[in-house]
Design goal:
mainly alpha, Hypothetical protein af1432, 2 domains, binds fe (ii) ion
């Protein structure tokens, strides 16, 4: 067990140094490097909280934390090279992350099986749907990182939507135009309990709708409870225009969440 803690501490210190190598005097870049650094550290906490709520053993928790620590490791290189977090305008940050991990061989102190689980979970953390050919342990870890990651993105964006008038960050808007419009396909997806395809994003409002629809991709009951406690749905809805469509999806999402929680 002591060994395990040493591993996690070692990984954390490697991560800190790695990220520091991207620090710059340019405040616009620095802000976004720090954004992903802080996001990563919060996702580590989210995944541990979720894992404990699910009664995972120490070893599974250690592996989950390692995945959380490295899941966005490609973001730093991505922002440095392309100046954007938009994968479609640059490259897939999960694939980029795997390249970084493999080139540095940082995971070599894990067993081969553990390395495969970490690589798979990182590779799958941003795909629209987890492939169902994975073994049970890999699948569980992919699901954990996906829930923990979404919880923190919701935290980041809901804060951003209330602070935005004071301080804008185009990287957090995927450079999408902020017009009153939204695309009806995103409304339709929500009413049919479907996660939307980011390919169809046209406006900043579409992005908010896409983020609401992630609720249909949540895997564990404690995550639904966190969504309710933190009032995620309400906070995103407030940032959208007040129309019949939006009121309709608000009701739909509220009912969906209540149902998922009552399954407890
Ligand atoms: Fe992330």
């Amino acid at each position: 067990m002591i060994e395990n803690n040493v591993d996690t501490a070692f990984f954390h210190s490697w991560f800190r140094n790695y990220v520091k190598s991207f620090y710059t005097e340019d405040p616009k870049i620095q802000q976004n490097i720090r954004l992903k650094e802080e996001h990563t550290l919060r996702v580590c906490k989210e995944i541990l909280r979720l894992g404990k709520a699910l009664n995972l053993n120490k070893n599974a928790l250690r592996l989950a934390e390692t995945i959380a620590l490295f899941h966005d490791i490609g973001r730093f290189e991505q922002f440095k090279t392309y100046g954007t977090f938009n994968d479609r305008m640059s490259e897939n940050h999960a694939t980029l992350g795997l390249k970084v991990l493999k080139a540095t061989n940082i995971l070599s102190r894990l067993t081969k099986t553990e390395q495969t689980i970490v690589y798979n979970a990182i590779e799958d953390h941003n795909v629209r749907k987890v492939p169902d050919n994975a073994d049970e342990i890999s699948e569980q870890h992919s699901k954990l990182i996906r829930d923990a990651d979404k919880l923190d993105i919701w935290y980041v964006v809901t804060n951003y939507y209330t602070e935005r008038h004071r301080h804008r960050n185009p990287a957090l808007e995927l450079e999408l135009p902020d017009t009153p419009e939204y695309s009806l396909c995103f409304i339709d997806d929500i009413l049919n309990n479907r996660v939307s395809n980011s390919h169809y994003l046209k406006t900043f409002n579409d992005m908010k709708l896409l983020q609401l629809g992630w609720i249909f991709d949540i895997n564990f009951t404690p995550t639904f409870l966190y969504i309710q406690e933190r009032r995620i749905i309400e906070k995103i809805i407030t940032a959208l225009p007040d129309t019949d469509d939006i009121r309709k999806i608000h009701n739909h999402l509220k009912k969906y969440l209540e149902n998922r929680i009552s399954e407890l």
